[in-house]
Specification:
Chain lengths: 380, 176
């Protein structure tokens, strides 16, 4: 099938209207005669590009008359659900050190670790046709076809368990005006050590009403079926999708950054990458924790309290309770004040702290610096 | 070969991209509403009549309060379809909304579902009880589970929404 584009001619006023253009990628189902299903395989391993492609398909493809299965995978990334708190769900400092980005998806659900050994499947359908158990049947039936000895079953939480115990797939979904998408992970050969080390809280002491994850022991398919190849898995899934829904769609490679094919996808990607989305959409939360302060020069210690309220990812209030003998209240007060309105982020806090430190020397400087360091560590 | 692509209108913030809802058979006379609040005059009346609910085809309801603001929530049909709500993502007070704009999302065991503004106006209050008790949306969708209150920039938009009878009819027609 050719991927042609019909470009709109500019209006006479010379202003080009930014209307979405049509594409032969999604032809009129009545003309194809082969059922109205489509299987796409993303050629990108960038989590933001792939999430943007999902958004684009959800917004632009008429799902009343067709369904789409998108197969994709990402280079290492942590993906939190729409209403989650990344500071409680994942180890942000460890991710920074390892160069693993954080993404927030638009669907609900919990936090997952993605890497090239994890396959993502997105089932797009109309709202009426939304049926997660049926979609998961596609996965379990496909697995049983290629490896009949595998004990795989979907639970009523829409997880898929291997041997009744290990989670190999988790599910999340989004309902829009008329459309729906249901996506799930599938652990083929992911790095489980990385998964468990990164899916830990960044800092203790956070209270929030963000949606929590439900941690589960996981396994890879290849732990129990070592000969199962990636390509074999993809082929089986595409085939089973067709078989379950009566389609005849061959998987087609797509480039999610192709602006000609998916007009506007670039700005969707930019929105997903933005701090305002990934961190700023965190539901309001409080951090109450104890800080252990030290003065190395004098070999002294002291305990302090940190109380922060964060809204939209920004510090709304910040109180540092330090005993007066340790540090003058004007300094601990100033530290609390200088963080107000800043992003709840160690980089910003460090910058604010540096500015304060410039005005101090000797013992206050030393202790303020230590307080700052401990505070930054407590912010994840 | 007809090679036309199939595209839904792109959901955008521009209200001109969406036709306003039109109801061909309004059963009630249109309400005439003043969007301005009263200015300090005491009203010597008895308990106010409960205002009628109007509904959108996205299963949201609007109730116009005495002071001309609209209280917004989701209908019983919607809360049943959603399942147990576990999180309510609501807008900031002061947010300007055009009719059909996405103003938030409800996350339930079923999915994350967008909320669409039934009217054009400004958010003046959000239901803070939902932060710790999102289940109110299921338990009391017309009362304690209200989502937000907004000004009504264009009273004609309220007139054009479905009344309860029309909404019941609408639900029956889509339930088949």
């Amino acid at each position: 099938m050719l991927l042609q584009l019909r470009r709109l001619r500019p209006l006479r006023t010379g202003v080009q209207q930014a209307r979405p253009t049509s594409s032969c990628l999604f032809p009129d189902p009545s003309t194809t005669g082969s059922g109205s299903g489509l299987v796409l395989q993303s050629q990108s391993t960038d989590v933001f590009q792939n999430l943007a492609l999902e958004d684009w398909i959800d917004a632009h493809v008429d799902l009343q008359r067709r369904a789409v299965l998108l197969l994709w995978r990402n280079r290492p990334a942590v993906v939190v659900g729409r209403h989650q708190n990344p500071w409680t769900e994942c180890n942000l400092p460890a991710m920074r050190r390892a160069g693993v980005p954080l993404a927030r998806r638009r669907s609900g659900g919990g936090t997952v670790y993605h890497d090239l050994g994890n396959l993502n499947l997105t089932f797009f359908a109309s709202r009426k046709a939304y049926d997660r158990q049926r979609n998961l049947r596609v996965v379990t039936d496909a697995l049983r076809r290629v490896r009949p000895e595998l004990d795989v079953r979907a639970t009523d939480r829409f997880d898929i368990l291997l041997n009744g115990h290990y989670k190999i797939s988790g599910t999340a979904s989004r309902l829009s005006r008329k459309s729906s998408y249901h996506h799930c992970t599938l652990l083929h050969s992911a790095d489980r050590a990385a998964l468990s080390s990164l899916l830990r809280p960044s800092c203790p002491g956070i209270q929030s009403n963000a949606t929590p994850s439900v941690p589960s022991p996981v396994a890879n398919l290849t732990d129990h079926a070592p000969s199962l190849l990636w390509e074999e898995l993809l082929e089986a899934l595409a085939q089973q999708y067709n078989s379950e829904f009566g389609f005849e769609a061959a998987p087609r490679p797509v480039d999610p950054s192709d602006e000609a094919l998916f007009p506007g996808v670039g700005s969707m990607e930019a929105a997903l990458r933005s701090w305002e989305w990934t961190f700023g959409k965190t539901p309001k939360f409080r951090l109450d924790t104890r800080l252990e302060l030290r003065d190395e020069q004098l070999g002294a210690r002291c305990g302090a309290g940190l109380h922060v309220e964060v809204k939209n990812g920004l510090v709304e209030s910040c109180r540092v309770d330090v005993p007066h003998h340790w540090l003058p209240p004007r300094l601990s007060g100033a530290l609390g004040e200088v963080l107000l309105g800043e992003r709840f982020c160690p980089h910003r806090a460090a910058a604010a702290l540096t500015a304060l430190l410039r005005c101090e020397s000797g013992q206050p400087h030393r202790r303020l610096q230590n307080l700052g360091e401990v505070l930054l560590a407590g912010m994840g | 070969m007809a090679a036309s692509g199939l595209l839904r209108s792109f959901s955008s913030n521009f209200s001109t991209a969406w036709p306003l809802l039109t109801r061909s058979a309004l059963l009630l006379a249109p309400l005439r509403l003043s969007p301005k609040p009263y200015n300090g005059r005491t009203i010597a009346s008895s308990s106010r009549l409960s205002a009628a609910l109007k509904f959108t085809d996205k299963h949201e309801w609007v109730r116009v309060d005495d002071n001309g603001t609209g209280t917004v929530g989701i209908s019983n049909f919607a809360q049943e379809a959603l399942g147990d709500v576990v999180y309510c993502g609501l807008p900031e007070v002061g947010t300007q909304l055009a009719q059909q704009d996405e103003f938030g999302a409800l996350e339930s065991v079923k999915a994350a579902s967008e909320l669409y503004s039934p009217l054009t106006g400004e958010v003046v209050e959000v239901n803070t009880l939902l932060a710790d008790n999102p289940g109110l949306v299921n338990k009391s969708c017309y009362k304690d589970g209200w989502l937000m209150k907004m000004t009504i920039a264009n009273p004609a938009e309220v007139d054009a929404l479905m009344d309860e009878a029309a909404y019941e009819k609408y639900i029956r027609s889509i339930e088949d």
